[in-house]
Design the sequence.
């Protein structure tokens, strides 16, 4: 059976997925916390939006560098599930109707990263290569 031409790249593409998803989440958080990039919503989040902004910005940054990838991705997956059910589901049952597709997609991408790990281009991978035997 022939291998798919991208198969040799799968581990590196896992790292690329993690980095891109982390950057996108970081920017969601930076909009809430610092209004950068500028948005109609403005900065200065409070309450649950402040908590979401901190998780998005900090978690996105950790995902970009690939540090504590599995627990961070699991937390962000939960954050996106909460965001979907609090902000989108009350608008209608289907994500295409309630504009919640992005929250659902993020939720499952982060759940996948929690299960699959960071990939080879990460601080986590570098740390695991440098760990010697425990004496």
Sequence:
């Amino acid at each position: 059976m022939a291998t798919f031409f991208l198969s040799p790249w799968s581990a590196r593409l896992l790292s690329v997925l993690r980095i891109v998803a982390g950057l996108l989440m970081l920017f969601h958080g930076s909009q809430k916390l610092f209004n950068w990039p500028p948005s109609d919503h403005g900065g200065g989040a409070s309450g649950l939006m402040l908590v979401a902004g901190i998780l998005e910005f900090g978690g996105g940054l950790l995902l970009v560098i690939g540090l504590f990838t599995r627990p961070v991705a699991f937390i962000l997956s939960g954050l996106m599930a909460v965001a979907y059910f609090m902000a989108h589901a009350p608008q209608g049952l289907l994500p295409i109707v309630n504009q919640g597709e992005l929250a659902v997609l993020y939720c499952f991408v982060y759940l996948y990263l929690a299960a699959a790990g960071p990939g080879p281009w990460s601080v986590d991978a570098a740390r695991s290569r440098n760990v010697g035997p425990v004496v």
